[in-house]
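[SOLVED] Predicted holo structure with LJ64HWYM

Edit: marking solved, answer below. Original request kept for reference. I posted the sequence and ligand SMILES and asked for the 3D complex as structure tokens.
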Amino acid sequence: MRYISTRGQAPVLGFEEAMLSGLARDGGLYVPETWPTLGREEIAAFAGLPYEEVAFRVMRPFVGDAFTDTEFRGIIDRAYAGFGHAARCPLVQLDANHFLLELFHGPTLAFKDVAMQLIGQMFQVSLGRSGRRVTIVGATSGDTGSAAIEAFRGLEAVDVFIMYPHGRVSDVQRRQMTTVPDANVHALAIDGDFDDCQARLKDMFNHHAFRDEMGLAGVNSINWARVLAQVVYFFTSAVALGAPHRPVRFTVPTGNFGDIFAGYVARRMGLPVERLAIATNQNDILHRTLQSGAHVKEGVVPSISPSMDIQVSSNFERLLFDLYDRDAQEIARLMAALGQAGGFELSPAALAQLREGFASGRASEEETADAIRATLSRSAELLCPHSAVGVKVAEEQPASAAPMITLATAHPAKFPDAVEAATGIRPALPQRMADLFDRPERLTRLPNDLAAIENFVSGNRR
Ligand SMILES: Cc1ncc(COP(=O)(O)O)c(C=O)c1O
Ligand SMILES: N[C@@H](CCOP(=O)(O)O)C(=O)O
């Protein structure tokens, strides 16, 4: 399998190099040259298999010769061994036809662990083989950061620098990043919002002299391997509810468009997905895009679902690439318009395709809190605010015989203030994290300035 850039000007790479490089050198995102498909029988055969086996079968076609089958099975087994649930990503029934896919049983209590634990293992095998060192830079609105730190802490061949928006993540999320004592980990509080952090991240990758000198690697969903690992749970959950013999529907709480893009990939691979609904909070650029056809940035407004406080949804570029029949020149033009003019209009053909493939909805702050409360009283499930945005939007979708699966993307204990305000219940952290608020914090506050961030990175990597 070969990987090409959405902007058409970067070298074509194999899986391992695409995984280690992060952003393509032309500023685009790597995508597989073609979408591999799985036949009905192959998908049906997933029923009853352990999560790890389905992961192997779904991801194998994308990995090529980067890892032997034995290496790849070992990587997958080690990635999920520490998850707190035997099913890894269990399904919970909310009502007759609505299910929650719990993605927060990994070490840092959010869906990011599902992919990050896997790529942590992939990096270790790959770097161990080559003797190469990398400097991981990441941007987070709260969850990617701690998942990355957990996956890469203490590794000799890796330094990790995570930028988060100062004052805009929950206290639990911040402490998960700032209380890790390992010398290779650096939490950087940036004066800006997540879009600023992600923009500086991409600036670093696009500054080729810096990128090459530092050996930059990216573990945001810029990295194709992150998205790939997330495709797996669309298959496991759908098959558990009868796919491929009956279609299913998904609603995905969405910010950077990585998770829902993974659902799109599952559908391209042959999974019968009747509806794929984008659920946004008040930072609703994607919902507005579906409604109006205009993809226009507005300022990020802080919300009680802070991990989705995003207006520049990085992976939307990957979808646009397909919507525009893989016309890389056109994608480069649209992305330049987004950067310079703050937005663009989708062509009528691209918009029609977008609306055919996706639905969307939005939850206000009040509606999010209502969904947390209503779900608790109906089914005793305590939702995090992001999952609540998903449940609210799922419930608005037209009735169908196909089961609806809403992705529950984080544990409620990561957002205790919002959950307590909605329900009066303060969710407790698991015992292993009970002393999180007693641990000393270590962080560096930096301006939203490329030179300042680059100086810090170059001065502090080992
Ligand atoms: C808890 C949570 N839910 C949902 C999202 C949105 O996922 P994506 O950015 O892949 O759209 C994020 C962050 O991205 C998150 O941390
Ligand atoms: N919500 C994310 C934002 C970064 O998304 P990613 O999937 O591109 O890493 C976070 O919690 O950091």
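OP edit: The radius of gyration is 20 Å. Thanks to everyone who chimed in.
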